[in-house]
């Protein structure tokens, strides 16, 4: 069997091709907008969400083209949220993945439209799949809910409102469950659904896995923000503390945050027990999320 | 048969209920975001796009709940585009429908998230319909294409790039075909598709109708921007000239613009001939679009 690293690199390569294929060509009018959409999406990041889609797709031997489609849709939503998040009226960040952010490289109006158009494109791509149409519609609804005011956008709203407040651990968890957790969860579900309809038991197991890695992802993010440097992260480090944002590190401290991440990794592994060897990549991704250095 | 005015008022009333029903309740967390989403969508505008959905639905006796769903989805896309368009980095407008714009009433970050979340909500609502799932997926794809970089967002990008340029009449038409035309067209198509699958001939006739009213809508908008006052329009009048934006009036002059609007109204009527009496509301809407005073 392929090593995890080999699988990850191969999947990231496939993903880059799928994203190019599912974005409008730069040659089409308006060319500058399309160029900026490519800039925002391509050649960036670890592709954690696409990796989750593919890893969950392996559970039920999902078709590769359908996985590429679902993964591209989720990654476009993620990319649009970063573009809007970086804008001056939100986090006002000039650096992302080691490159100038979209509103710096282009301009603010362009960044606004890039995000808006990427969201539309994500739904266009996902709704164009070749699987059972009832299941495909369910996938569109899941992605829409994960993206909207009861998912990612809602989490960002809570995050903005929380600056300078003393959030409890529960409030912090709820914010992250929406802000980053919803999209990680839908990545797992879309990958599995690309393979087959899910039983209630399967959905519950995948939800438990996704909840655990979603929180772990954020805990580790907070630890890295507090301990790594900007060059390693490819974005401005120490920003949370500077912005007076509540984090796991500010509430629990560094050591307890690390212990929590380790506990969540074990929770994720346990949730996958019923899937046996086919859950190998999902298990390895949980390990990656907790052990990453950037 | 109900008068046009009676039908319009009844449909607008139905629409208001449908929008409330299809938006997340304000009581849900994050309440401020949900309140701002309601503020952006409810109690505003002539609801031209929903009226087109319902009028096209009458062609094939579409189910009322399905029409409400499609109309709500299109109107949420329209409302989100207005919220983002009004932001300082775009048109920087403080007044919309006679009320403070969302970023003025709330703040810029909130306006950004309101628009983003409304777009997700639109796709959630449309993907949740009760008609044939293959047709429903086609409707989702149509709305996504009409909203994205080859539709509305693309038109806005061309519009932004055109400030201060001497556009030809063809270039101006292409910009408006995307910026406002794409969403008007999809309103007509979604209404018809809520009733049944369309033959190529039916699609072509509805496309011709939509193209004509789409351009007419913009020509009349330009005429009103040049001739009406802000109180009548419920938004800042004379803005195009002040921003040095190319318009039909700046290229054709006032009288030729009015003649063009009248010609487009006749084109719209002619495109509907095959549908007979069932196209009555679509014909009346073409008249309304050309004859409106605000």
Explain what you see:
Two copies of one chain form a homodimer. Helix content of chain A is 71%, strand content 1%. Chain A has helices at residues 4-22, 31-41, 48-57, 64-85, 102-105, 108-126, 133-147, 152-162, 169-195, 200-227, 230-233, 239-242, 248-252, 254-271, 280-291, and strands at residues 95-96, 99-100. Chain A has a two-stranded antiparallel ribbon with strand order 1-2. In chain A, helix 4 (64-85) runs antiparallel to helix 6, helix 4 runs antiparallel to helix 9 (169-195) and helix 10 (200-227) packs parallel to helix 15. The longest helix of chain A has 28 residues, at 200-227. The radius of gyration of chain A is 18 Å and the shape is globular. The interface between A and B is large, with 52 and 52 residues.
Notable features of this structure?
homodimer, 294 residues, mainly alpha, Farnesyl Diphosphate Synthase, two-stranded antiparallel sheet, 15 helices, 2 strands, 71% helix, (2E,6E)-farnesyl diphosphate synthase activity (chains A, B), magnesium (chains A, B), Prenyl_diphosphate_synthase (chains A, B)
**Protein structure class of chain A:** mainly alpha
Tell me the span between the first and last alpha carbons of chain A.
27 Å
What is the total number of structural domains of chain A? 1
CATH class of chain A: Mainly Alpha
CATH H-level superfamily of chain A: Farnesyl Diphosphate Synthase
Model regions low in confidence, pLDDT < 50 over at least 5 residues of chain A? none
- What does the average pLDDT of chain A come to? 94
Largest interface: A-B, 52 and 52 residues
Oligomeric status: homodimer
Shape of chain A: globular
Largest pleated sheet of chain A:
2 strands, antiparallel
CATH topological fold name of chain A: Farnesyl Diphosphate Synthase
Question: Into which percentage range does the β-strand content of chain A fall?
Answer: under 5%
Find the count of extended strands of chain A (DSSP E, 2+ residues). Answer: 2
Strand order of the largest sheet of chain A: 1-2
Order of helices and strands of chain A: HHHHEEHHHHHHHHHHH
H/I helix tally of chain A: 15
Helical amount of chain A: over 70%
Identify the CATH architecture of chain A. Orthogonal Bundle
**Rg value of chain A:** 18 Å
């Amino acid at each position: 069997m392929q090593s995890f690293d080999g699988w990850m690199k191969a999947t990231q390569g496939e993903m880059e091709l799928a994203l190019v294929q599912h974005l409008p060509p730069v040659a089409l009018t308006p060319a500058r907008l399309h160029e900026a959409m490519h800039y925002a999406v391509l050649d960036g990041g670890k592709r954690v969400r696409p990796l989750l889609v593919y890893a969950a797709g392996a559970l039920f031997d999902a078709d590769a083209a359908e996985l590429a489609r679902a993964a591209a849709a989720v990654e476009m939503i993620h990319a649009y949220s970063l573009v809007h998040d970086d804008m001056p009226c939100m986090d006002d960040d000039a650096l992302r993945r080691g490159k100038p952010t979209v509103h710096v490289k282009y301009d603010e109006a362009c960044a606004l439209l890039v995000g808006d158009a990427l969201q539309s494109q994500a739904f266009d791509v996902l709704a164009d799949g070749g699987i059972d149409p009832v299941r495909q519609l369910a996938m569109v609804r899941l992605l829409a809910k994960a993206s909207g005011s009861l998912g990612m956008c809602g989490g960002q709203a809570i995050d903005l409102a929380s600056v300078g407040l003393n959030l409890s651990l529960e409030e912090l968890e709820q914010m992250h469950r929406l802000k980053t957790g919803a999209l990680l969860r839908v990545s797992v579900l879309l990958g599995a659904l690309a393979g087959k309809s899910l039983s209630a038991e399967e959905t519950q197991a995948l939800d438990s896995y996704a909840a655990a890695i979603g929180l772990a992802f954020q805990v580790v993010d907070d630890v890295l923000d507090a301990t790594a440097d900007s060059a390693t992260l490819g974005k401005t480090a120490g920003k949370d503390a500077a912005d007076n944002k509540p984090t796991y590190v500010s509430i629990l401290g560094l050591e307890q945050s690390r212990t929590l991440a380790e506990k969540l990794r074990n929770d994720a592994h346990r949730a996958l027990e019923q899937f046996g060897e086919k859950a190998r990549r999902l298990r390895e991704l949980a390990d990656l999320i907790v052990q990453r250095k950037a």
